[in-house]
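Researcher: Structure prediction, please.
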Amino acid sequence: MNTVKKYWFFLGILAVSLLPLLDAPTRTAALGSWFKTHHGPDCSIFLVFLLSGLALQYRQIAAGISDGTGTLLSLAVTFLAAPVTALLFGIFPLPVSIYTGMVLIAVMPTTLSSGVVMTGLAGGNSVHALVITILGNTLAIFTIPVTLQLMIGCNATGTTGMDIDQSGLMLKIAFLVITPLTTGVMLRKMFPSPVKRCIPCTGPLSQISILFIIWMAMCHGRNDILQGMSSLFIILPLTFFYHLLLVVIGVGITRICNIEKGRRESVIIMGGQKTLPLSLIIQSSLFPDFGLAAVTCVLHHIIHLAMDALLVQYLKRKA
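Model: Predicted structure follows.
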């Protein structure tokens, strides 16, 4: 029972990923597709960031701004090293859908909650990790449309680059990220007592919303996924080595810049982690026919959380 309680989110990801594929009458897939085409993903990610805003505190943000060097290094890994590394994988003749998934992963900002928690467990500064999360997700409004446009036509299979409405995508991301995040922070300031009582529920509700987004993506891409099951043997090692390279880059850059214990953990963990909900939202908006792109994003999320759980233990022993 304790194992289920501890790993319920991982088990939930497996359940919502497999259910649409195993449902032969496709009732589940039809229902998930209906939600997906009726703003289900948008509402879910709005709720995720609203709950994140409710959990934020001004004092935490102010306390974590002091480490400017660590913040810049972490953001450099997220927004520079990650896309460049993905481009290296693009040299190989990957299927278009899988390469698109890798691009979506590469341009994403850091995770909303798991990175902060893992940084603290590793002996690092979780407050600094929180600042990196806020800055990264804010900068992503401007970086994602530009980087996505530059990367999407670089596949060795000869994919034709698509013209992305960058200003429209910026507005969409801003609405789904900044608006609910700011609203949550304001609600906490205006109604501190009621919000404080709700804080313990924000984490589970946020994770349930993420599971709902994954379920809708899997339902909508069910046919593509079933037809491309053999591609899992490409996606699994691809996402594993991709995240491994980001971790190695993070470790290397902290050593080169002499970032000491207690500060380096947030750089290594936050630099390599990538948020899942936003990648699935963009996939459903711009690449709805690429079901394997969504699978690539989901599998990468599972793999990088499992890898970082081991990384936490390693950094903890070092500390």
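Model: The two ends are 31 Å apart (CA to CA).
Researcher: Thanks, that helps.
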